[in-house]
Amino acid sequence: MAGALAVAVVTAGAVCARTLRLGARRQLVGRPSSGTGSALLSTLPDFLTASVLAAVVGVQLGWLPALGWYGPRWMVLPALSLGLPAGALLGRLLDDMLPGAFAEPWALAAAARGVPARSVARQALRRCVPGLLPNLGLFVVGLTGGAVAVEQVFDIPGLGRLTLQAAVAQDLPVLQAGTLALLLLAAAAGGLARLAARMLVGPALRDGALSSLHRPTPSRPTTLPLLYGGLLLGVIAFGLARDPLELDTTARLRSPSWAHPFGTDALGRDVLARVGHGALETLALAVAVSAAALVIGVVLGLLPRFSGPLLDTVNAVPPVLAGLLVAGIAGSGASTPALAVAAVAWAPLSAHTSALLQQERATTHLTATRGLGAGPLHLLRHELLPAVLPPVARHALLRLPGVALALAALGFLGLGAQPPSPEWGLLLSENQPYAERAPWAVLAPAAVLALLGALAVTAGGGVRWPGRAVRCETRARHEQRSKQREPVTASTVGETS
Fold this sequence. Notes:
By secondary structure, the chain is an all-alpha fold.
């Protein structure tokens, strides 16, 4: 967990480095948000990354050990497998909040007075990190109890794998002890995250002296979502025109060709056909689960006193363990992964909503609006939801590939759809033993998952509250005109304030 957290922090810093550099130099207005590379990283299945690193770096190159747990060298590959996707997602969330911090009055005054860009960037990080600390606490528990697939690939006797084996073997004492350890870790991580958030924000929460942390200007429209969406729809359309169950034992594990653009699997079935038909099941479940998680997360996030203890409890249950519980109650089937992931997918969105709501309630404009006689419903409809819902909706879009990965991970572990279903997790599980001999059979569904992640990231930048988007665009035009008329100086900033 410690190694994966270190990798995640470095990865998150690399993802938002461009925004920090441009924002500190007042060059961020009108620049499109970068995110394709982070989308690819965040959509890498940890079990697939672990398998590739173990086979290439550990076995073929022999640089690092691939199996066992005997010292620090055995920690590198598992930490990379877990930390890269988590860091990419954290970096994207931080990158989404930074433009709002750089548009606050303190940043404008600091730039006018010649404060070094490094100091401005450091203060912007301090302003945005408290909103992400609850999610960082969720990652701490997820990297411990949810690393079952990585522990299984690298043969690590971790807590998540131990709990899973105890659940399968119905070893109640070990299962109870493992679950209790995860609950205590979740409670400790959640409490430390909330305490650190209060310490970083300082007395501004008590005095109501914060500004609303949202993007000041809408992102510049790009054609990337149309490109990624067109590619994804094209792959699905071409796959649907083929038979996913047709067997040809004379064409086993054939490389990509005109007849089989994605190659064939170990039974001679067309991989493109199985990817296309599996998309209907995987994407439909992922979208439905993400929508349900968004609604539940926002509703419970608006009630932090009620959802706080529930959030810590749910956070301690890894999706794999939830899948076992659901499978024990409802039986193993295609709906088991969806029910298991839906039971825990709302927790990060609820934590994000609660963190943003806490800061939004401490803003000066909300205090002024309340002083003018506005009631709770008016504040919720016109102030709180327009500021909280768009970033949480963008967060849900960023997690859409993660939901698909969680469904795939449960299928990879045999808790979801059963053969001959073309569900993506089952495709990865079936073809993973042939990754060295026929890598295309594994890379094809992984590439489609990465394409889904790139689509979600690039499309998420356009999520705005309808009325607020128009006001932001008008404000951006006025700011652009004022910059063209006169240079920014300390006196002009003072007159404006």
